[in-house]
């Protein structure tokens, strides 16, 4: 099988959450360019409409904080061949100031919503007797303690744990589940957050490859995890971090 064939998604359908913007939007556009039909889920109807104008497919506006609405939207989106859980958010607060409401909101969107989407997807695949693949876009924050990121780090570590359990339980049905864990990525929000040299330079100095990630570099790893080339990869958390994790 050639490399091009491994990346061919013609005739395949993919549900991508967080597709309104950032990494999720890039994933959706790159998969569409490789032949996939995209069901794009996100909070902003306007952004989803502009994405659909670019790549076609289906728009699924839903606020993932509403878990009941998320379940209904996920079930209505089936069947799809693959699922990419990319939606995420954070609220930055010192650990002594984090409220239960903040923690619950971050955990709901970053961890519980992916569980609900994975359940809907896996139930449909099992009912049809067909294999599949899920990729959860996590973060290298799952492995670290980062100031003011208590809820975010916890939610992403939990998402990686969810990935491992799903891989174990769904593997006998031929459904693979993996996480991709990017370092700082230059989304619009990332550029704003890391534009100040005094903040960015200490982190950049620890990156062997010398720069932060672009969204397409995260998307390529996500797409690989969906392909036949990753057919024996499951339950993994792939750090896409420019070498940050290997620095002493």
From TrEMBL:
SMART domains: PKS_KR. Keywords: NADP, Oxidoreductase. InterPro entries: KR_dom (IPR057326), L-xylulose/Carbonyl_redctase (IPR051737), NAD(P)-bd_dom_sf (IPR036291), Sc_DH/Rdtase_CS (IPR020904), SDR_fam (IPR002347). Residues 12-181 form the Ketoreductase domain. Pfam families: adh_short_C2. It is an enzyme of class 1 (oxidoreductase). Its EC number is 1.1.1.6. The keyword Oxidoreductase applies. The keyword Ribonucleoprotein does not apply. One of its GO terms (molecular function) is glycerol dehydrogenase (NAD+) activity. PROSITE patterns: ADH_SHORT. One of its GO terms (biological process) is xylulose metabolic process. Homotetramer. PANTHER family: D-ERYTHRULOSE REDUCTASE (PTHR44252), D-ERYTHRULOSE REDUCTASE-RELATED (PTHR44252:SF3). Belongs to the short-chain dehydrogenases/reductases (SDR) family. This is NAD-dependent glycerol dehydrogenase. The gene is golD_1.
């Amino acid at each position: 099988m050639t490399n091009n064939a491994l990346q061919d998604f013609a005739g395949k359908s993919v549900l991508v959450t967080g597709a309104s913007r950032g990494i999720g939007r890039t994933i959706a556009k790159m998969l569409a360019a490789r032949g996939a039909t995209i069901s794009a889920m996100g909070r902003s109807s306007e952004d989803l409409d502009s994405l659909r104008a670019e790549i076609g497919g289906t728009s699924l506006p839903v606020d993932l904080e509403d878990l009941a609405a998320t379940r209904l939207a996920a079930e209505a989106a089936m069947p799809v061949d693959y699922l990419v859980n990319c939606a995420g958010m954070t609220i930055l607060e010192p650990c002594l100031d984090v409220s239960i409401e903040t923690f619950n909101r971050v955990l709901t969107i970053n961890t519980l919503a992916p569980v609900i989407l994975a359940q809907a997807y896996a139930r449909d695949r099992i009912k049809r007797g067909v294999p599949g693949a899920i990729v959860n876009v996590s973060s290298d924050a799952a492995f670290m303690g980062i100031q003011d990121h208590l809820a975010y780090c916890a939610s992403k570590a939990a998402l990686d744990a969810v990935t491992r359990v799903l891989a174990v339980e769904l593997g006998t049905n031929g459904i693979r589940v993996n996480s991709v864990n990017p370092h700082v990525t230059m989304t619009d929000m990332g550029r704003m957050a890391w534009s100040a040299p005094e903040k960015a330079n200490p982190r950049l100095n620890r990156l062997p490859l010398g720069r932060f990630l672009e969204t397409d570099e995260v998307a390529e790893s996500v797409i690989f995890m969906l392909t036949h080339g990753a057919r024996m990869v499951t339950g993994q958390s792939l750090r896409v971090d420019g070498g940050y994790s290997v620095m002493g």
